[in-house]
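for the writeup, i need someone to sanity check this before i put it in the appendix. the sequnce is what the collaborator sent (i think, or maybe the updated version? ugh). structure was predicted straight from it, no edits. if anything looks off just tell me and ill rerun, i have time this weekend
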Amino acid sequence: METHLHHEHNTGITSLNGIYIISIIINFLFVIIEAAIGFKADSLGLLSDAGHNLGDVFSLLLAMIAFKLASSHGTKRFTYGYRKSSVLISLLNAIILLIAVGAIIIESIHKLSDPGSLDVNGQAVSWTAGIGIIVNGVTALLLMKQQKHDLNTRGAFLHMIADTLVSIGVVISGIVITVTGWSVIDPVISLIIAGIILITTWNLLSESLKMSIDAVPQEINTDEIMKLMESESGVTNIHHLHIWAISTTEIALTAHVVIDNLKDMDEITADLKRKLNEKGIDHTTLQIERQCTDCHDEECC
């Protein structure tokens, strides 16, 4: 069963490579264009959005690397391969984004405290952010089909949808500046964008930290898993249950399973693994015991 699942996973990796490469290229080119126009037009809104879009490029790279790492083979030294590296990369990405948010907030406050520095080309802002809507929209369309089958891709897809909305906000600020000349809207929009980035990044940072210390992944309910395993016919007790993320895409579980008849061991083990796999747990290791005392731990029961 596991071999078949890994085969399907590797097929998904291959099919997604082209999509990710195209998405990364068009988003990175847009970051360069947006940053250049932002500097020329003295638009903090564009510069902050460019920083956000650069984060998107890193996120896309992270998703692609995570797929690659998920297929790495174990060695004598690294028995799970380099799959956990995807979590560390995610943590690093979150830290870099938090630093970028801090820089945006500081510069926005400076702009608001010095009205004389607010001289923004509203048309340049609107046109550039309009291109951003197209770029983010196209990227979302490229990921839309695959996001239904993969959590990493779904995250990237939702990120692109959010960025499309952010670009719409920047377009609005450009129109307001062009019509009213109210340039203060530019740092205000940049602060809103910083807030959106902060919310997204904080969730990424929190989950990455938890996964790096082998916490139960957010999408897994431990009580539900325990009840599922205990409800299996022939199982009398579950203890020493551990659930953690091997990578950003794979989850592992180990547990001691007490059964009333060792003759049913193979059937119970296969059935539990199948049910756990349906809950998104890819790697399951079960120690079958006849009674709790078999594990030589007085507190296990």
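The beta strands are 235-245, 251-259, 283-289. The chain has two domains: 2-212, 222-295.
thx in advance!!
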